[in-house]
Amino acid sequence: MPLVDCDGRSVNYEAGGPDDGTAPLMPFQPPGASGAPIWRPIAAALQDRFRTAAVNPSAYGETEAFAGPEPMTLRDEAAALAAVIRAELPKCRGERAHIVGHSYGGTIALVLALAWPELAGRLTLLEPAPYVLLRDAGEIALADEIGGQNAQFIATVRAGGRHAEAMEQYLDYFNNRPGFWRSLDGRAQQKMLALAERLAVGLDAVERLDMRVADLAAIDVPVTVIRGGGTDPLHARLSELVAQAIPGATLIDLPGAGHMMSLTHGAEIAGMLRETA
């Protein structure tokens, strides 16, 4: 899998599709507690039309963990995505990328579009998660709900020896299904437990995100926000906020999908993305 340099840190991604300048670039940024492999089925369905590049965030796959003197920010994650886009664009048709991001990854896509607008030609955001926008928009109850969930996860992980408790709380909540964690087999649970500390770092970066609703008005490329038709009220409202704040953005409901739609509705998402080629 390719590696690129981002300020002295190696960033790893999975690439596929034409690299002879005939296809546009479509990079993918995964949701929290996930790496590039989550995109494999969707990317494979699109590689006759796009050059795909699924990015591994900090400390996932072969991407080096961020090790700056200050805690990692989402701008640091967006800088890694930008490095991948710059490396791949010379192999592709067009001067900008169609960036696809889910949840945590959708938030990174928004940060990139604001920080490096010359790289973003289009955004498709699957329930992006810039939770700070909820409080900015006056959605105090929802902001307190997600802030409390994230703070509890981070504190439980950092308390040491309580990763299983933290992952049970997190996965049951984000899958909107009590008992989800206990329904996983032991191998799946162990795989998720290995991600707990990396997820805590990412959630901490999300909570410290410096973004306001008004900032999104500066995004002037086509944007599609995909919301799960069966998602929870928090992510439903947040998707609506993002779509309303970006001029000309389109909000689409995906029937039957919840927040983890990239896992459950890959074929439908790939079909939507094919239409943008």
CATH class of the largest domain: Alpha Beta
The domain tally reads: 2
What percentage of the residues does DSSP assign to strands (E)?
A: 15-25%
Strand order of the largest sheet: 1-2-4-3-5-6-7-8
Uncertain runs: none
* Computed Rg: 18 Å
Task: Tell me which CATH architecture of the largest domain applies here.
Answer: 3-Layer(aba) Sandwich
**Approximate shape:** globular
CATH topology grouping of the largest domain: Rossmann fold
CATH superfamily of the largest domain: Alpha/Beta hydrolase fold, catalytic domain
First-last Cα distance:
25 Å
Report helical residue fraction.
40-55%
Topology:
Layout lengths: L2 E4 L2 E8 L8 E5 L10 H5 L6 E5 L18 H15 L8 E6 L1 H12 L4 E7 L5 H5 L3 H19 L4 H12 L5 H4 L2 H8 L2 H12 L15 E6 L4 H13 L4 E5 L6 H4 L1 H9 L3
Parallel strand pairs: 3-4, 3-5, 5-6, 6-7, 7-8
Antiparallel strand pairs: 1-2, 2-4
Helix pairs in contact: 2-3, 5-6, 5-9
